[in-house]
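Why do we care about 3D structure at all? Because function follows from shape, and shape follows, mostly, from sequence. That is the central idea of this module. The next example makes it concrete: a single protein chain, its amino acid sequence, and then its structure expressed as tokens.
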Amino acid sequence: MADGWLKPRLVATWADRWIVLQIGAAAGLAWFIAGAVLGQANAFFAPAAAVLVVSGSIGKQVRQTAELIVGVAVGLILADGLVRLIGRGPLQLALVVILAASLALVVSGGRMVLNQATTTAVLILALYPHAGGGIFWERWIDALIGAGVALVIRAVVEPRQPLRAVRRAADAVHDRLGEAFEGGTAAVRNADPAATLAAAERLHPAEAALKVLSEETTRAAHLVSIGLLHHRTRLTLARVDAAAPHLRRAIDNLHQALRHESAALGVPLAPGLLDAMAALDRASDDLLRDLVNPAGTWHGAQAARQAQAWAGRAERAAPPTATTAVAGHLHAAAGQLLLAGRHGPFAENAPTGPTAGCNDS
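And the structure:
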């Protein structure tokens, strides 16, 4: 039981090691600059502000990160000013937190600023024993140091190849889909119901691999959200994230097509079904290869359109049997691949509507 819980958590922690490194590096560097370089006796707020900004900005864009810093400033200004006037204590703490929350909402209206302002106010009142003696300029310097260090760390401390894990995950989806297409095409051609059903079941690992791809995409996007050198990487990750739901629906439609086909192999095969499957195989292969390429342009759009055209012919040629349902699911799968290609640089090769490319050619 313990091993079953601990191993996934250790794997997830190792996958997030760069985020952990960013937090630790920001705290240590902020402490060093404030304490060792500037000689401040109590440099607590520099690493505290650095940790607040780094941890709070994971997955956030530059504007949201700026809101974090505004929240820290709001809490610091208000707490420093009011503690001078009303002193420290439980009632004073409650009042300062209420005022900090109210001011944060007035300034931005965002929950992020609210959280940071109230947290900072609590830190000032609860952890500075001499805060009632006046407004200490050291804390302002600490805040600047911590926020500045956090921004630098978030911008530059990143893996050299943030897409490596995403590409591995995409390769796994590619391999699982390739196995299912290969087995399904052979089984349908040989009119083997058991093998066709087995090919459908092979798509479950593809769905699991696609889930891993989505997780790795999210993790990488969190890491490079404000990285200076990774603008194109962010665009690529956004493209993968937008395409994943369509890929999931395409896999589900292919799964349904193979299951229906396993029950319809006693009926003469509708013309175009095997051609549609072959075109889908090419389209998904190209999509998964080009999806994680920052300069990629999807070359599989034409294959997806061909798959729709072949499936449409099969729908019209087949009698109203299970074979018609097979063609319908293949047609839908091709449409989902076309939709997956409508994001980022792929858009120039994508149709203007979800049913484009369905006509005979």
